[in-house]
Design brief:
75% of the residues lie in helices and 0% in strands. With 154 residues, the chain is mainly alpha-helical.
C-alpha cells in the first residue's frame, strides 16, 4: 500500500493503496490500520469519512501505535469534541512517553485546554512544551498561544 501511496516503483494510486492497506489492516497490521485511517481522514482513494477514520485509528492505537493515538486526538479536536481530544492527547503523553509525537500531543493538549477555557491548565501545559522542547516547532507554537493568552488577559 505504501508503494502505491508514495508512487515508489509503481504509479501513485490512492485507490490501489487503499486496497492494499485494507488487506493488511484486516489482518491486524497496525501501520496499515493507521494509514487507512489517514486515507479516510483526507478522502484519498476513498470518500472522506471521519467515523471510519476514527475506527481505523482506534484499532491501531489499541495495539500501541502512538501516531494513531495522536490522530484520535486530532480527529476529536477538529470535530470540536474537546474533552475527548484532551483524553486522547493525554494518552499519547502518558502511554507513549518516548514517542516523537509527545511534543505535538502536549501542544494540542494545551490548545484543547484553551478551547475548554481551562486557562491555568492551558498555560501550564504550553509552558511545559516551551521549556521541555525549546527547539521544536511545538515550542514556537506554544509561545505564540501563550502571547495570545496574555493579550486576552488569561
Amino acid at each position: 500500500g505504501v508503494m502505491y501511496a508514495n508512487g515508489s516503483g509503481v504509479p501513485e494510486d490512492d485507490t490501489e493503496a487503499v486496497h492494499w492497506f485494507r488487506l493488511a489492516a484486516d489482518q491486524g497490521y497496525d501501520v496499515a490500520q493507521f494509514n487507512l485511517g489517514k486515507k479516510f481522514t483526507f478522502g484519498e482513494g476513498v470518500p472522506e469519512d471521519d467515523a471510519e477514520a476514527v475506527r481505523w485509528f482506534r484499532l491501531a492505537a489499541d495495539q500501541g501505535y502512538a501516531n494513531a493515538q495522536y490522530w484520535l486526538g486530532e480527529a476529536n479536536y477538529v470535530s470540536r469534541k474537546f474533552p475527548e481530544a484532551a483524553e486522547e492527547f493525554q494518552k499519547v503523553v502518558n502511554d507513549f512517553p518516548d514517542s516523537p509525537k509527545v511534543p505535538d500531543a502536549m501542544l494540542k493538549l494545551g490548545f484543547t485546554y484553551y478551547e475548554l477555557q481551562k486557562w491555568d491548565d492551558a498555560r501550564r501545559t504550553l509552558e511545559h512544551v516551551r521549556k521541555q522542547y525549546p527547539d521544536s516547532t511545538a515550542a514556537q507554537l506554544a509561545e505564540t498561544r501563550l502571547r495570545r493568552m496574555r493579550k486576552e488577559g488569561h
